[in-house]
């Protein structure tokens, strides 16, 4: 399987330099990351929302090694919120954050990440939108869930992400499927050991359906993070069985992947939110997109051969 190999490469400085230097890389990266600055991304936001889509915005960058970098990450999100305020889009555009970007892995990282993310959540609430805490590798999750619980005391609309491939996730889903919660379910995109995570696609897919059933039958707001046509169909059926209206759950997909499906679901009346990343520190995000789906890797390799 190429996925684990690509994920290992995402942590390699040598591979980072090699891929970043390839002439075709920027062209391919632009498929998944449509800009480097807030000014770049505002027209993209306007275009997608005009098509009836909703968005969650991610300022890419996870390799934080100093408190100053964590503060800069916070400020980047606050700058984004200032621009969103002018667009007056309310809940149509929310934000997704990785707590590693706010200093979670540094000394005293739990408290530092909470201190940095709280102003972002507060500012988002002030313009009528919210923030979802992205899940990262399994060693960070207890801290993420604790920060999520703390933030929800003042900002109950704060969302979080759970990953189907982890053994712990079914229990997490039962705990989180409560009134007022917002939970995005994804398959998982980090290299995890067999002691904590399913390794085979069919096992992950079965776990995804079990967890999604729990969320749909619960009292929270499920967010289905998947591009898999079969899982999308199953999600619609589970929502129907649970008696959910179209505004009581949503689909989420990545910018640059299955764009026609984004529009199809929106046209059918579904809430369809596009996960849209931007920024200069794109390498880790880009490599996980390649690892998630063979077609993404094929697209990159084909572009390298034909354009390089």
UniProtKB/TrEMBL annotation:
Presence of the UniProt keyword Disulfide bond in the record: no
Residues reported to bind FAD: 163, 187-189, 201, 226-227
EC primary class: oxidoreductase
Enzyme Commission code(s) on record: 1.5.5.2
Example GO biological process: L-proline catabolic process to L-glutamate
Catalytic function, reaction form: L-proline + a quinone = (S)-1-pyrroline-5-carboxylate + a quinol + H(+)
Domain Proline dehydrogenase stretches: 45-300
Cofactor comment: Binds 1 FAD per subunit.
Pathway involvement of the protein, from the record: Amino-acid degradation; L-proline degradation into L-glutamate; L-glutamate from L-proline: step 1/2
The entry's keywords: FAD, Flavoprotein, Nucleotide-binding, Oxidoreductase, Proline metabolism
GO MF annotations, alphabetized: nucleotide binding; proline dehydrogenase activity
Pfam family, one: Pro_dh
InterPro entries according to UniProt: FAD-linked_oxidoreductase-like (IPR029041), PRODH_bac_arc (IPR008219), Proline_DH_dom (IPR002872), Proline_oxidase (IPR015659)
Keyword Transcription regulation: no
Cofactors that this protein relies on: FAD
Chain sites annotated for binding substrate: 98, 288-289
Protein name: proline dehydrogenase
Species in which this protein is naturally found: Streptomyces bauhiniae
């Amino acid at each position: 399987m190429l996925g684990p190999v690509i994920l290992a490469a995402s942590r390699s400085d040598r591979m980072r330099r090699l891929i970043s230097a390839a002439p075709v890389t920027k062209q391919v990266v632009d498929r998944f990351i449509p800009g480097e600055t807030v000014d770049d991304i505002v027209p993209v936001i306007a275009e997608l929302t005009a098509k009836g889509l909703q968005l969650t915005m991610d300022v890419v960058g996870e390799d934080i090694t100093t408190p100053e970098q964590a503060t800069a990450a916070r400020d980047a999100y606050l700058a984004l919120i200032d621009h969103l305020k002018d667009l007056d889009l309310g809940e149509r555009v929310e934000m997704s954050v990785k707590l590693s970007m706010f200093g979670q892995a540094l000394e005293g990282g739990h408290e530092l990440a909470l201190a940095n993310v709280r102003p972002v959540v507060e500012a988002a609430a002030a313009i009528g939108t919210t923030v979802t805490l992205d899940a990262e590798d399994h060693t960070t999750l207890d801290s993420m869930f604790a920060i999520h619980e703390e933030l929800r005391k003042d900002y109950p609309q704060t969302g979080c992400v759970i990953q189907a491939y982890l053994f712990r996730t079914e229990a997490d889903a039962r705990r989180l499927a409560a009134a007022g919660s917002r939970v995005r379910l994804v398959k998982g995109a980090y290299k995890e050991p067999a002691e904590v995570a399913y390794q085979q696609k069919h096992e992950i897919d079965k776990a995804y359906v079990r967890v999604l059933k729990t969320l749909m039958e619960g009292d929270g707001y499920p967010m289905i993070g998947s591009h898999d046509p079969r899982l999308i169909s199953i999600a619609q059926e589970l929502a129907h069985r649970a008696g959910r209206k179209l505004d009581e759950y949503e689909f989420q997909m990545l910018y640059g992947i299955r764009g026609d499906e984004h529009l199809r679901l929106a046209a059918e009346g579904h809430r369809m939110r596009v996960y849209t990343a931007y920024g200069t520190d794109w390498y880790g995000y880009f490599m996980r997109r390649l690892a998630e789906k063979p077609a993404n890797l094929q697209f990159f390799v084909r572009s390298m051969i034909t354009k390089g």
